[in-house]
Amino acid sequence: MTALTLSTAATPGLRADAIVIGVAKGAKGPVVAPGAEALDKAYDGRLAGVLETLGASGGEGEVTKLPAPSGFKAPLVVAVGLGAEPEKGAEYGAEALRKAAGVAARALAGSKKAAFALPLADAADAGAVAEGALLGAYSFDAYKDSGKDGKGKGPLGEVTLLGGKPRDKAFKAAIERAAAVTEELNRARDLINTPPNDLNPEAFAAVAQVAAKEHGIKVQVLDEKALQKGGYGGILGVGAGSAAGPRLVKLSYTHSKAKKHLAFVGKGITYDSGGISLKPAGHNETMKCDMSGAAAVFAAVVAVARLGLPVNVTGWLALAENMPSGSATRPGDVLRMYSGKTVEVLNTDAEGRLVLADALWAASQENPDAIVDVATLTGAMVLALGNRTFGVMANDDAFRTAIVEAAEEVGEASWPMPLPDHLRKGMDSPTADIANMGERMGGGLVAGLFLREFVGEGITWAHLDIAGPAFNEQGPFGYTPKGGTGSGVRTLVRLAELTAAGDLG
Asked: Distance between CA atoms of 64 and 23, rounded to whole angstroms?
């Protein structure tokens, strides 16, 4: 785990493996960002020119390395691109700082300590740099024996933020928040990246129990017998084909001064083969990530508890493994859900909505002020929004807007999506109350309409389809690694903060 500290030490005398500075893209060439004044002075005010000679432009994601000047104890300078230079009088945006810090942290993998001298206008900027650096330093190597050949590089060992104020309450709070949120988000990434032979529903539930005990969160786990007794037909139906039984995990964080109650519901398919409606070749290899929604909910609840926010938050993890076997649910079967409604299963690969439906109804029984579900639900959402943006649907326009704004604030790309009522008719079934499939076009919206059927009357609800950004199959970028990303965690935490402050509804 990468350590994080604030320092007011002078840059030349700081002992570190590298000093990280920012460089922006100016109208006439690269511009050295605030925070690097001591270095620029050591280069006689010509640092921007030196960087330009080395090919730097200040573009986002760009990394330029050069030797530190004489008199500096750190041997290396890492200049990282911040993108376009802000207009006169404006500051660098939080997301630009996060991305730059993340890129630098990845570039310094294997180093023991790096001093980040990026522009810090206030405590919020310090928090953004800390978040980016800690997220960018993430690596998942639990299954790699990389030490034998000497080529393995561990993550950056320590991040020191220069220009911060260690004794300032605002700076201290920003750093503590960044540490709590990023550590839990990285734990979500670990869960997503863990192979399904080691992370089945029972194993996931065990991880949640340990974390809940550590952070004072009440936890309840329903196993197969309890689910059968309770009538959770959706979760049981999806898990029927697997030797690893399903689980429903309830995490309850309460605060004595809370005035609002949020419920977060996460899809937790620890492996999705598609069931009897088997996925085609080439679509199975990354299906360990189909529990990313549950991982996000789990991480968010623990982060909220660590931050001690005055809001009650209940997390519901709907965990199952979707496998084909003689006991698996078949296309054409009818399941009786926890709500009492019956669902005709036309496609066993549309399983996420079935486990979520039971969890949504369970969450509704506590009548929270709002419910937000998070799921890698549909390939249709990826087709609509690409690999880096999640869709947001809701039964309340103002709540949907609030979630999109919260996501933008923390640096998560999202987009508001509609719930057209005319698409509901496509899920009419001659056999059951509703089918789990509808019209092919607009499939992501159809899934949202299905989920809406299982939200209690009068309860504000939103659905986050994170199918695109949850798992990065391409190369790393910014502070986002290859593999599990932890998409949705920061948005959920921000929603809890806004609710606690009375700024959300």
From this structure: 10
Q: Count the neighbouring beta carbons within 10 Å of the beta carbon of residue 20.
A: 32
Spatial contact of 369 and 261, defined as CB atoms under 8 Å apart: yes
Instruction: Indicate the SS3 state at residue 112.
Output: coil
Cα–Cα distance measured from residue 301 to residue 212, given in angstroms and rounded to the nearest whole number: 9
Rounded CA gap, 145 and 207, in Å?
24
How distant, in Å, are the alpha carbons of 124, 184, 247, 253 from that of 464?
Answer: 26, 19, 22, 22
The sign one gets for the Cα dihedral 79, 85, 89, 92 is: negative
Catalytic site includes residue 353: yes
Instruction: Give the mean pLDDT of the chain.
Output: 96
d(CA 387, CA 368): 31
Active-site hit among 98, 99, 113, 353: 353
Q: Tell me which of 165, 279, 336, 452 is the catalytic residue.
A: 279
- The CA distance from 6 to 142, in Å, is 29
pTM for this prediction: 0.97
Helix (H) or strand (E) holding 90: none
- 283 sits in which H/E element: none
Query: CA 328 from chain center: how many Å?
Result: 31
421-475 pLDDT, tens digit per residue, is 999 999 999 999 999 999 999 999 999 999 999 999 999 999 999 999 999 999 9
Annotate 286-309 with b (16+ C-beta within 10 A) or e (fewer). ebbbbbbbbbbbbbbbbbbbbbeb
Chain centroid to Cα 196, Å, comes to 19
- The residues pairing with 31 across neighbouring beta strands, listed in sequence order, are 24
342 CB-near residues (< 8 Å, 6+ apart): 334, 335, 336, 431, 432, 433, 434
Q: Which tokens is 422 given?
A: 């005319």
Residue 44 burial by Cβ neighbours in a 10 Å radius (0-12, 13-18, 19+):
exposed
What are residue 79's DSSP bridge partners? 21, 64
436 φ, ψ (degrees, to nearest 5):
-90, 5
Query: Which residues make Cβ contacts (< 8 Å) with residue 404, sequence separation at least 6?
Result: 392, 414, 415, 416
Q: What is the mean pLDDT of residues 70-87?
A: 96
pLDDT tens column, 356-370: 999 999 999 999 999
Q: Is the dihedral of CA 287, 290, 291, 297 positive or negative?
A: positive
